Amino acid sequence: MKGRGIMVAATRQHVGKTTTCLALMSGLRKRFGNKVGFQKPVGQRHVLVKDEEKASHKIKVDKDVRLFKEYFGIETCSYWDMSPVVIPSGYTRRFLDGFITEDEQLKAIQTGFENISKSNSYTLVEGTGHCGVGSIVNLDNARVAGLLGLDM
Length: 152
Known about the structure:
41% of the residues lie in helices and 18% in strands. The chain is an alpha/beta fold.
């Protein structure tokens, strides 16, 4: 799959990926209007938000996804698509024990990206942590970028 977008990643954590994405999103919205999607395919730090489909339920999403959705007022993307894989405490153990499969993760990321791409002219994707984060569950940034057909 080749999407119209780009993935921002880094070799270290806490070096400004989110800040860079905020600036890119601001600039992209000047060019494409409100038709710019955002996805953080693999998140580490989550917050609880209201499920858009079932208002009485709360779901875990990456904290940066909530920031982008609320700050930019993104209405063309659902939380589910923007934050398809969140890795809270215990997730790696559940993956290694076979309760979460690699295919499930990949499908969630790909489906989310496809849904966002259908509704937007451009999609900005933020990688997780550093190059090794996600590798224990086979979701490092390079693999995700390749899956989505994005340059990094």
